[in-house]
Amino acid sequence: MDLVHTLLAIWIIASLVFQNSSNVEGRYHYHRKPKSSNRGSSGSKPPVSSPDPQVPSSPTSPPSAPSDPYPNDPGNSSANCVFDVRSYGAVGDGSNDDTEAFRQAWKEACAVESAVILAPEDHSFIITSTIFSGPCKPGLVFQVDGILMTPEGPDSWPKADSRKQWLVFYRLDQMTFTGKGTIEGNGQKWWELPCKPHRGPNGSTLKGPCDSPALIRFFMSTNLVVSGLRILNSPQFHMKFDGCEGVLIEKLSISSPKLSPNTDGIHIENTKAVGIYNSMISNGDDCISIGTGCSNVAIEGVTCGPSHGISIGSLGVHNSQACVSNITVRNAVIKESDNGLRIKTWQGGTGSVTGIAFDNIQMDNVMNCIIIDQYYCLSKACLNETSAVHVNDISYRNIKGTYDVRMTPIHFACSDTVACTNIRLSEVELFPQEGQLLENPFCWNAYGNQETLTIPPIDCLRDGEPQNAFEPSTYECN
């Protein structure tokens, strides 16, 4: 009898141990569905690929293209919590407003480490202007596999919403925005506003407010990854980074029509330690634009065009100080574009653009292939001013291809009082797409040297250093 009691006790203890071990799943995510929703659950599959969000925040040199952007593939970890927006009431039929579902999914996912907010494929979600704020737990992934779209045009835009931005990601660290889906900006009706360039009666431009939303904005955030997405038809800039540090952008496709106004592809300002890799951008303005406060930026494997090329600037507007340094663009293609590699500054500014390297760039029927313009102006009212942003240490190496003969392929228009210095050209060979070779590149107050013979020949570049009273240290940035 004692033996029977002993065996019974052992069986009871073993059962309790087994039951407790089966409750480990309680560590994973559960939430209440809205009462009206039965469209999904948190048990959706984790993302196919979620880039490792660890990006160096302050490298000593520009970031280099990673050989494997998914070394840990957190999407394959069973520990990831997936927050499918359908579980919060999102319909995804392309007509209902799903904004509140995304906000609720963000709120819960933000509090969980390595969480995934999922907008699944085969669905089209409309959301209105929204700020997704942090700080959040590290490793947050916003994954769009379906279509995420704006309301269609100004008349559909909620009156209470900002007309200057659509999606804003604010105060985040180690966040990834990725997926195999599409971000649709529905920009056509915004581009046709009469206050846009040449959209008024008889080709005029009407005065008055003409706000249009930038599609995606990252603000005051660190260690970001944006990858894999298709971004289309933004009303204004497609993607902006402001006040960020440690940004990896790769494998994006950004597209809008050639004549869509102010639709820059990627714009960065006051942002450091940036890598932009292996992406295709065609749009109606700058393919990539770099504003003041940017340093340690590497751009590689990017195809631009049609577009306005890759631009540093415009800088120094309203007599402001502008500081840009350590920018590298290599292994890129620029085609059918109004500009190629451009540095543009307003008169009257201060500060400097320094340490810029353009290397191995293929041009295909580009106007203004190589241009420094220190007389940038949007009206006829601009006056000559004595101060200027100092442009220094600019290298053009292995720049080859064809140019549109309507403009000279090389144009260095530097300030009367603050010369451009240390411009270096090597293996620059540019031929006309059609017609005769233009043999007169333009230079004004530009100093530097040709390390190899340039095609077309550039005899206007001055040797040595300027002899006037210009003092470069006056324009250095802290």
Automatic annotation (TrEMBL):
Pfam (any one): Glyco_hydro_28
Segments for region (Disordered): 30-76
GO biological process: carbohydrate metabolic process; cell wall organization
Residues annotated as catalytic: 308
Stated name of the protein: Polygalacturonase
Family per similarity comment: Belongs to the glycosyl hydrolase 28 family.
Cell location: Secreted, Cell wall
Organism: Quercus lobata
SUPFAM superfamilies hit by this protein: Pectin lyase-like
Taxonomy of the source species: Eukaryota, Viridiplantae, Streptophyta, Embryophyta, Tracheophyta
Leader peptide range in chain numbering: 1-26
Pro residues: bias regions: 48-72
Keywords of the record: Cell wall, Cell wall biogenesis/degradation, Glycosidase, Hydrolase, Secreted, Signal
GO-annotated molecular function: polygalacturonase activity
